[in-house]
């Protein structure tokens, strides 16, 4: 998973309408609103009636029935107001050990948002897999080098393992020049050996590999022969990890997860990861971390992860939700973003980009905007004008938007992958 991802181009009709004419959204900063901690939704709201929640996509104003810890507050809804956000944004669940989601949960942690390390320790039992973003495999002269061990924190890993059973699978980004790596057998074997050796020496439970987006960027996936070699490399790496005993438990093998992007359209291109690729790799990969976010970009501002787009992506990969291979579906991890976007939408200027929870809080405190629910995408947004009178649109996850995606995953029988848990908010995370 890249630090920032290639973004899909689309603008929802609701935002187009607001951009063209609804100036009142930004000219009436009536309310003071702050972020509801996303972890409340993840750790409190999950045990909810799936079909009732799913219908929220077609309802304007809904309050969800959830467990008693928030049912009485009525804060999981589309018409959230600033007082509720101010009251609830820094609260987290007292029970940090019980899992309610029955499918795999992968969470990424990055060194540049170090809050994630603490969150991983507190909520260890909520996750099945934790992936610290530590490693890059690069070309060096005629060979390869695996960089990143200096990021590794053995003390943190030991503390995690003393508190829960989440598997530690550091992410490795394959930065090596693909034309060289994929064509040369010795380099492919060297790459696999470097990764497996690092797992053994550092006592990891396996790895998460990101390479598909890099290969697409280099253009190698447009070549049928290179594409086959790319898939074969991923398969060989997975098989090697599966044939290697876990350093912590010789009765189990190392695990392998692979990062894939969503298809760019219904008409699959050579560089898209499609259903045939999923079938080819399913026995050698334990989980596919699907990047179902970054749908929009500064040139085409809009929601981060529209629900209809998510369903289209899953249908392309898995087929109809009524007739899918449940074992294969369980290996697909729906990507959920714990960051948002602040887009410039005045005129043709464009601009803006990703924001974290701390950025979001600052914007809410300064501009006191009115939040609006876009039922087409299933996301909240607000508008504001900055000090130069330039209009912005801000999309950021809320309790309702996260809940809908979690329940969507449950209905499909798939897991989730979170990018990333250090971005979510800037205040206390104590249970």
Automatic annotation (TrEMBL):
InterPro entries: Chitinase_II/V-like_cat, Chitinase_insertion_sf, GH, Glyco_hydro18_cat. Residues 1-28 are annotated as: Disordered. One of its GO terms (biological process) is carbohydrate metabolic process. GO terms for cellular component: endomembrane system; extracellular region; lysosome. CDD domains: GH18_SI-CLP (cd02876). It is found in: Lysosome; Secreted. Residues 103-431 form the GH18 domain. GO terms for molecular function: chitin binding; oligosaccharide binding. It comes from the Eukaryota. The chain crosses the membrane at residues 35-54. Keywords: Lysosome, Membrane, Secreted, Signal, Transmembrane, Transmembrane helix. Belongs to the glycosyl hydrolase 18 family. This is Chitinase domain-containing protein 1.
């Amino acid at each position: 998973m890249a630090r920032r991802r290639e973004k899909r181009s689309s603008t929802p009709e609701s935002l187009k309408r607001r951009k063209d004419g609804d100036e009142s959204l930004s000219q009436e900063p009536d309310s003071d609103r702050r972020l509801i901690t996303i972890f409340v939704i993840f750790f409190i709201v999950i045990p909810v009636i799936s079909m009732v929640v799913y219908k929220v996509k077609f309802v304007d104003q809904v309050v969800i029935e959830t467990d008693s810890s928030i049912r009485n507050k009525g804060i999981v809804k589309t018409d959230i107001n600033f007082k509720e956000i101010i009251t609830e944004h820094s609260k987290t669940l007292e029970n940090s050990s019980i899992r309610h989601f029955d499918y795999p949960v992968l969470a990424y942690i990055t060194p540049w948002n170090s809050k994630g390390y603490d969150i991983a320790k507190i909520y260890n039992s909520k996750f099945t897999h934790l992936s610290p973003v530590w490693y890059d495999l690069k070309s060096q002269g005629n060979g390869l080098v695996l960089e990143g061990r200096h990021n590794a924190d053995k003390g943190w890993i030991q503390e995690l393992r003393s508190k829960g059973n989440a598997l530690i699978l550091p992410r490795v980004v394959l930065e090596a020049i693909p034309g060289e790596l994929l064509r040369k057998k010795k380099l492919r074997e060297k790459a696999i050996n470097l990764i497996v050796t690092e797992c053994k020496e550092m006592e990891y439970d396996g790895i998460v590999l990101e390479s598909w987006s890099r290969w697409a960027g280099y253009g190698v996936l447009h070549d049928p022969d290179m594409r086959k070699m790319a898939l074969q490399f991923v398969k060989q790496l997975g098989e090697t990890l599966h044939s290697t005993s876990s350093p912590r438990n010789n009765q189990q093998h190392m695990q392998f997860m692979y990062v894939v992007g969503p298809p760019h359209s219904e008409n699959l291109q050579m560089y898209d990861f499609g259903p045939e690729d999923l079938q080819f790799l399913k026995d050698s990969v334990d989980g596919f971390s699907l990047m179902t976010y970054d749908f929009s970009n500064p040139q085409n501002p809009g929601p981060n992860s529209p629900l209809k787009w998510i369903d289209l992506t899953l249908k392309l990969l898995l087929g109809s939700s009524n007739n899918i291979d449940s074992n294969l579906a369980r290996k697909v991890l729906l990507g959920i973003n714990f960051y948002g976007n602040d887009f410039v939408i005045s005129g043709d200027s464009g601009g803006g980009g990703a924001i974290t929870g701390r950025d979001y809080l600052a914007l809410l405190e300064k501009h006191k905007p009115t939040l609006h629910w876009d039922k087409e995408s299933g996301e909240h947004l607000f508008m504001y004008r900055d000090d130069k009178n330039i209009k912005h649109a801000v999309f950021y996850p809320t309790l309702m938007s996260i809940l809908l995606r979690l329940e969507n995953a449950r209905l499909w029988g798939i897991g989730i992958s979170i990018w990333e848990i250090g971005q979510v908010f800037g205040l206390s995370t104590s249970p």
